[in-house]
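Please check this record.
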Amino acid sequence: MKNRLFIGILIFSSVGIFGQEINSIRFENIVKSLKLDKAAIKEEFCTEKKMPNAEDSYITVLPILQGKEEDDFFTVRNYIVITDENGAVKNQYFDPEEITSDAVMLRSITIDTGLYNISKSIRAFGVTVSVANGSQPNPYSSETISLYYSEGKTLKKVLNTFELSSHGGEWDTRCSGEFSDDHSVIIMDKTKTNNFTDLKIKTISVQTKNQEVNGDCKEHETSKTTYRTLKFKNGKY
């Protein structure tokens, strides 16, 4: 049977921080500029990426602990900033969305600089959050994305925790069981609403049922593809 368990891959950076590599000088300057308590930063989830569509601009995400961390439980909010090469802050946004890691654990935070051209003059970027549990008989994982763009000295959040993928199921850890997998892709549509590009969502949903027959593990899989559209209204999708 295929291994369906979610595996988070963490990569060391130049300052010992996991995720997309973050420059140590920029990191220190951001912390100093925002007057952050280093003890409250979940450094293993900090991440940084150069903006491909803006000169001398870097996106950095710093997860900030909310309250105390206890055993395997913690809650963070993301401080998202855009800086120059030296770490001077151009834009800053303290996302109100709380990310809680407990039985369903936070696995990774990454920055997506895909071609999210949401209007004629605005290209957004994404921050993805991946979570998973540690259960073998009842595996679960999910990845969500939020979209932002720079506005003045802050950031505008236009899409909040949209689920890109999810996996869940129940099985006997040998063969018999059922699983569901959903994977969505965001497509920039040709139509617009309130001068912002409509987001066409293509979702492939796969249902898998495994059953032991005469000592062999038989897999039956069905799939369907659906489409829907997210429109820009009241400042967000």
